[in-house]
Every structure is written in C-alpha cells, then in structure tokens.
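Morning, I've got a small favour to ask if you have a moment. The fold is given in discrete form, as structure tokens running alongside the sequence. I'd be grateful if you could look everything over and explain what you see. No rush at all, and the record is pasted right below.
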Amino acid sequence: MRDNLLTFHKTIHGYRHLQEEIPCQDSSTSFTAEDQYQIISVADGHGDPACHRSDRGSSFAVEVAEKCLRDFASAILSGDMLFELPRQRAECIQQLTNTIVSKWNGAVRNDLLQDEVTEDDFKEAGRYEEAYKKGERLEHLYGTTLIAALRVKDYLILIHQGDGRCDVFYADGSVDQPIPWDERCQGSTTTSMCDKDVFTRIRSKVIDLNEKDVVACFIGSDGVEDSYYENEENQQGTHRFYMDLICKIHECGISGFDSYLNEMLPEFSKSGSTDDVSVAGIVDMTKTEELLVVYRSKVAEYDRHESLRISLEGAKAKVVSMTRKHGILSERITKEKSELERVQTAYHSV
C-alpha cells in the first residue's frame, strides 16, 4: 500500500455451487507496484453447462489482464506510451484490449493442447455440440466475463466485458458506474470473452484523476448485484454494499479486513444470490475516512428503506392470505346457509 492506497481482492465459492458440487467459476487478482500503480481484476466463468471449463477461463482472464496492465502501466510510466490526448488514449486502450483478448485466446489454445476435447466435453454442449466435434468454437468451453482496473499516474483505466459491476467513488461523496453498460447483458444472458465480436465490443473508460478525484474503485462479479432486491435499475444495493465495505475496512483495520471478508462473503452468498462472489478494490484510506459519516448515513438509509419494504411486503402477503381465507369462509357460510334452508324447507313440508 502506498500513499494510503489499499489494494485487495477476494473470491469465495458460492453457497449453491457448494451444495451442488459445482467448481467455483469466479477468479480475482490484485497487485500493487509500490508507489507506481495498482491493478485489480475480477472474472466470472459462465454457468452454462456448455462452458464447463469456465473456471479455467476466468482464471486465465484475470492472469492475462494483470500481466497486460502491468506492461501497460510500465509503458506509461517510462514515457514509451503517449497517453495525454484523448485520441492517443483511445488508440492505446484499443491496443490494450486487443492484447488482453488475444492473450486470453492464446491461454485457451494452450490449455486445449494440454487437455484435448473428449466425449465428456460433448455431453452437455447443447447447441455447440456439432461445432465442438468439428473443433470449432472451443473457446466457448472457457467462457467468462472480465472487469479490470488500473490506477497509474493521473489516470484510472477501466475495462469490462460481460456482466458484473464497477463502482467508482468520488471525493464529493458521489458514486457511479462509469463504464458504459452493455444492454445485451440482461437476466441470465451476458456477453463474454469468447464472443466473436469481443474485440470491437469490449468496453472501457479512462478517468482523469485531475478532473475527478477518485477515492475508491470497486469491481465485483454479479454475485454481488444479484443479492439485492430490485437492484438492476438504480444499483442502489450495489452502492450500499461497497459503502459498507469502506466502513468495514476502517472499522476492522487493514490487518483484520481479510478475515472479515472470509467470514462475511460466504454468508452474503448464502442469504443473497447463492452464486460465487468476487470483489476487488483500490481504496484511498485517507480520503474515504473523511467520508465515513456520509457512507454510514447512506447505508443506514438504505437499510431502513429495505426494512420498511420487507414489512410492507409481509403486510401485503398477510392481507392476500386473509382475503383468500375470507373468501373461503364466505363460500362455506353460503353453502351452509343454503343447506340449512333446504333442511328447514324439508322439515316444514312433513
């Protein structure tokens, strides 16, 4: 950690995956080069049975991203890369993402040479079975998302393919998700490192830290966002999660934070999405400390709102239940009344 910048990552095996004996399909990394730059990355391998090597795919993705971002940072710091003007930045980022995708595909090819496709790979291939048998689209076996961030000099560089989210916190107390969202990521559908158009569709964002003072950057797999009710539209649940994480970093201290994540994240998965969960972050400990009052207030406000929502949903469910019971009782009374009238009529006619 330098200049009070904490860099961390954590991946835990999801509750449902543990119960169903499915391998953890998430991967994450973090790296800091003393006082020069910081890197974080997260990848989420696809749960589609046709992608049953996705745990390897996610591991390849974070490893490749970290290596490429290290080289990228070194080039910026040495002056070998022109990065001052917007056009220069765009060209450099395009080269970076092309390199990451190419090296990920190279890692996949190397793995296929060491572990060739067998009949077991065809069993649940679905619509990809014929292609797999022809030796085509084999990278789909390793399908995964990728989010990565590099903080170097006066820049925060973000890249993203697939779902998951990147939350960036600013010195004015605000938070947003600056990487453009891919509208093709809806529900259980996501874009992937194995897509044919990944070279042109992978997303990126460069933030000039002289223009926007970033105090923290977090990235996470969709096991985080999917744990919050009605979160997709405004991502308030995701923001709440990372605000609380900042508070916990300061409460636990750097030495205790890893233990906190080891205890909290498995329970978070169990009570939330039940999916694998990966988080990684770059946090300015000095600047975020100045904002703890703001974050704690917003976390408490979100929790109060959720408590009221749950109470209201419970009340609504009770009303529905009581209404249903009332309808059943009313129907029973009507039938009993009808039967009584029939018996009375029969009695008086004797």
User: Anything to note?
Assistant: The chain has a mean pLDDT of 90.
